[in-house]
Amino acid sequence: MSSLEKFAGRRAELDELAESLAKQLTEVDAEREKLTVAERMLRRLSEQEAEAAGQDAGLPQQVQVAGRSVLKVPHRREVVDASALPGGYRRMLQIVQAAGGPVMVKDVGAELGIDVVVPGRLEPPRGKLSKLAVRGRLHRLPNGTFTIRA
User: Fold this and answer.
1) Span 85-99, pLDDT tens digits
2) 11-22 confidence digits (pLDDT tens)
3) Distance CA 135, CA 44 (A)
4) Per-residue pLDDT, 52
5) Which residue has the higher pLDDT, 75 or 125?
6) What phi and psi values does residue 78 have, to the nearest 5 degrees?
7) Residue 14 — φ and ψ, nearest 5°?
């Protein structure tokens, strides 16, 4: 084998290695990009939690979700009493509690002054009652009614 053939063979090996390393570098850059985004999100959440810890626990807290400011509905285990809930949620909780038994969404809507005959008007209260159930403040029965969680 001549020296030129050896050089050509070595150059081909190096070309393959360079191609493999370029592919690995692309994968590493993509993963670093994902890591940067995750770090930003974690930092933002940490800042919001620090702000929330500094605020009065008895007041509804505002947090950023997808660039929009929204009121946080805390989980029952985070804040036992309803004082940390936004006003509309507190009112719905009081309505269900005053009923003393299972309550339908349309009953809560009627109590809130919503026109229950118009289709779709009950969807926002239904969503709020469902959120209260998910957060452990209400119990949603299989028939779609809600009761206070003991």
Assistant:
1) 777 888 888 898 888
2) 999 999 999 999
3) 23
4) 62
5) 125
6) -75, -50
7) -65, -35
Name the amino acid, one letter, at 78.
Answer: E
The 3 state secondary structure assigned to the chain is: CCHHHHHHHHHHHHHHHHHHHHHHHHHHHHHHHHHHHHHHHHHHHHHHHHHHHHCCCCCCEEEEECCEEEEECCCCCCCCCHHHCCHHHHHHHHHHHHHCCCECHHHHHHHHCCCCCCCCCCHHHHHHHHHHHHCCCEEECCCCCEEECC
Note the pTM of the prediction, 2 decimals.
0.50
Cα separation, 89 vs 119, whole angstroms: 22
pLDDT band at 115 (very low <50, low <70, confident <90, very high): confident
CB atoms within 10 A of CB 140: 16
